[in-house]
Amino acid sequence: MTGVKVGELTESVLAAGAIAGVVVLSPLLHRWYRSWGATEQELQEGLPGDGQVPNPRIETTRAMTISAPAERIWPWLVQMGQGRGGLYSYEMLENLIGSDIHNADQILPEHQQLQVGDKVRLGPEGYPFFTVVDLEPNRALVLAGGPQPPDEDAVLWSWAFVLQEGSPASTRLIIRNRTDYPSSPANWLIWRVFTDPIAFVMERKMLRSIKERAESVPARSEPQVQRLSGSARGGEL
Asked: pTM to 2 decimals?
């Protein structure tokens, strides 16, 4: 087994442990992990996509500063999805459930075209997927899960990726999830006890991976041909 594979396996084992710990401790940690990295202002401000789920039972707002302008981050967001650029999280864990995710370490020109109405898949046909409901280049990508148009009796889930430039060389990437589900003990168990903490661990890795990728591209190079070094692919938990 190569060093990269050993590193990926170790990272995945540690991530699985983190998931188990966050699930067990979620009653104590949920305020922290639902706002990981976000400022008080970011938690309070309205963001694109909020109207997709006007009365969420769960809302998370997580953020990270990336030392790159928005236009260097945007291509990584546009190509997300199964069968596209991947989800930049723990690939091995995702593929344990058959998601067939392969995270790209370069900009893929063939997946840079995205429009409202397109699907962003989490796995092959039959797996959950999101629909693009709003898209503003270099500013916001809003995905919605559940039926389109929304059905009040179904699980509704919005997933918004918002870029806010603080300076020419620094951008905040804010990810907001808003989820509503029909009230039942089973739904409470699925979404609050399991999905909510699991999504935190996976999304935190996504944020860090997007940061590594966007910052790895030198300011004057062409992102279409830039690849990450082996060290940049490793990431952190």
From this structure: 0.88
149 three-state secondary structure: coil
Structure tokens at 52: 């997709």
The mean predicted confidence, pLDDT, of the chain is: 89
3-state secondary structure of 41: helix
Whether the Cβ atoms of residue 193 and residue 23 lie closer than 8 Å to each other: yes
pLDDT confidence of 222, banded at 50, 70, 90? very low
Task: Compute the distance between CA of residue 5 and CA of residue 3 in angstroms, rounded to an integer.
Answer: 5
Which among 63, 48, 33, 41 is positioned nearest to 171, based on CA atoms?
Answer: 63
- Element at 3 (helix H, strand E): helix 3-33
CB-CB contact of 97 with 125 (8 Å): no
E strand or H helix that includes residue 171: strand 170-180
pLDDT of residue 221: 41
Say if CB 209 and CB 88 are below 8 A apart: yes
Place of tokens 């291509």: 75
Mean per-residue pLDDT for 15-33?
Answer: 95
Nearest to 236 by CA among 75, 14, 68: 14
| CA–CA dist 211, 64 (Å, integer) | 8
Kindly indicate the confidence band of residue 153, based on its pLDDT and cuts at 50, 70 and 90: confident
Backbone angles phi, psi at 63, to 5 degrees: -150, 165
